[in-house]
Amino acid sequence: MAPIDPHSFTQVSHPLTTHVALSLYLDFNTSIIHGSALLSLSSAFSGNLSLDSRCISIDTVLDPQTLEPLPYTVSANPDPIRGTEIVVALSGQSSLLLVYSTSPSASALQWLSPLQTFSKTHPYVYTQCQAIHARSIFPCQDTPAARIRYDVVMNIPASLSAVMSARHVRRRLPVLEEAKHLQAGSSLWCAEDRVVEEFVMEQPIPPYLFAFAVGELGFREVGPRTRVYTESAATEVLDAAALEFAGTEEMIRQGEKLFGDYEWERFDLLVLPPSFPYGGMENPRMVFLTPTVIKGDASGAQVVAHELAHSWTGNLITNINNEHFWLNEGFTTYAERRIVEVVQGADRATLNIGIGWRGLTDEMERFKDNLECTKLKNNQEGVDPDDVYSQVPYEKGFQFVFRIERQVGRTAFDDFLKKYIATFKFKSIDTDTFLEFLKANIPGIEKEINLQLWTEGVGIPEDAYEPVSTIYTKIISLAKEFKEGKMPSEDEVAEWNGQEWELYLENLPKTCEPSQVMALDKRYKLAESKDYEVKVSFLQLAISSKCREYHGEVEKMLKAVGRMKYLRPLFTALAQTGGTEEKQLAKQVFAEARETYHPIAQGVVESILSKYI
Ligand code: BES
Ligand code: ZN
């Protein structure tokens, strides 16, 4: 009995789920979902079918045809990474119905009390399923090797509305009949203050792309297939987001030119509350975004370009499991930069390659004692994907794809990419499948590029590309001069926006003379920057340099946003910096802010603190 995926209990010899029909009753008072999941398999099966779950309590498992109970067992001790295995004994069925409830600590869900929202009057809940959290919402074969279509009937308070990574069908009154299996019971299901929202997802997706959000939502049209959603009370956020993302349709068109038809019909954007743990999440038809990307410059569009690019690389062609995550993120980083190049110009794209290069070399330092994490294809047996999340799959993956482009030339590579996507769309593949396709379509490529070194080797291959652009080189040399006590002049930084500052700050030594750090901030007001990338880069430097004047600002920041891109470096800097004051601050802030973070972010900060404190 071999598993198909190190992060799932799904067995290779078992039929995979092809469709899931969910009935969900969302109880905001208890932060619990009472649900039923009807799983349809690719073929009838006799034997013990393994499913993934996390913190889910099963009420009954039924044969949907006869409504007779099916025998099942729930493993006694959850695996710390994979969760709890559910084994259902099937005798020739091709579908099964599980009636269950989630737990308030479900790792995919963040339940926000009214006070944690913009409006302060209505609760909010949203999901983040990647990499392995869908199993905390419904029992399933939670591996991207499986591709599912789904239907959802969602029962929510009438004052709220729902969005999903799916087509919205209708909003209507609850019907008594629907409640028959549910623990919630018909009186709750049909209570006066409840409505039902129905969704269908017709395109087959890996379970990690299952997504919803429920709150008091409002939207604005920004293009023929794009709406921007925010909390309806957050009118300023909605205004700013509509402006920021006005160019989305143009990007979709460019994406179609480069990579083929857009297969998902709609491309809507949901701007989440500040606790959203990622910059963006490529949920199909409804991308999720942190509000921190809205800052009135090019970077918001860039995150959208990235999530849009996943519509081809990641969502159409999907990594078969997380050991091949670079197939998702490396290709998407490449595709993102191709879109950015067309809509924002080659300079911007090159600067992004530079920032990425810096990120990649930093990761090599971070993983110097864990070289497995520097490989594109890597062994994740016993490894929690949230713990090893890094820039490596993005930037080394980008470098590999770009290396192939440089070898064959752009025109030929563009044709190859289109063919690659057309060949494997709606499939989940591994690194070897990609390499075989590459060798078959670009004969002799393995003689020009050491494909094995790139995909299985550690570190950064010699034929990677460190960008050269005047602005990039200038910034790096200015950063070097800082060590010798020289600050960049007003003239030198006159044209800089956030990304230039970010590159500059990240190229400074990890620790500097405190007086010099403060002088830099006095002149350029970096700690107060509205651009969080700049602010965090600066605060990180300030913490490591033991400039304790900034601890107040660090605390404020850590309590205002839950995006892990900011939490990780700040908590790491605090925990790693020798002083007890820093460690103390890390512990105290986490204790106070913990409840405001998404469960995934809580787990990540916990593991940072336990490593150093
Ligand atoms: N799919 C990722 C986010 C993700 C990765 C969630 C792994 C869970 C596990 C998304 O496409 C992404 O890469 N987001 C980036 C933004 C992007 C511009 C690089 C992020 O959140 O920073
Ligand atoms: Zn991505």
From TrEMBL:
One Gene Ontology CC term in the entry: cytosol
Family annotation (SMART domains): Leuk-A4-hydro_C (SM01263)
Presence of keyword Metal-binding: yes
Keywords: Cytoplasm, Hydrolase, Metal-binding, Metalloprotease, Protease, Zinc
Places the protein is found: Cytoplasm
Cofactor comment text: Binds 1 zinc ion per subunit.
Peptidase M1 leukotriene A4 hydrolase/aminopeptidase C-terminal domain segment(s): 470-609
Annotated positions binding Zn(2+): H306, H310, E329
GO molecular function: epoxide hydrolase activity; metallopeptidase activity; zinc ion binding
Superkingdom of source: Eukaryota
Keyword Thylakoid included in the entry's annotation: no
Binding site for a peptide: Q128, C129, Q130, P277, Y278, G279, G280, M281, E282, R563, M564, K565
Annotated catalysed reactions: an epoxide + H2O = an ethanediol
Record-linked PANTHER family: LEUKOTRIENE A-4 HYDROLASE
Family: Belongs to the peptidase M1 family.
Role summary: Aminopeptidase that preferentially cleaves di- and tripeptides. Also has low epoxide hydrolase activity (in vitro). Can hydrolyze the epoxide leukotriene LTA(4) but it forms preferentially 5,6-dihydroxy-7,9,11,14-eicosatetraenoic acid rather than the cytokine leukotriene B(4) as the product compared to the homologous mammalian enzyme (in vitro).
Record's protein name: Leucine aminopeptidase
Provenance organism: Thlaspi arvense (Field penny-cress)
High-level lineage: Eukaryota, Viridiplantae, Streptophyta, Embryophyta, Tracheophyta
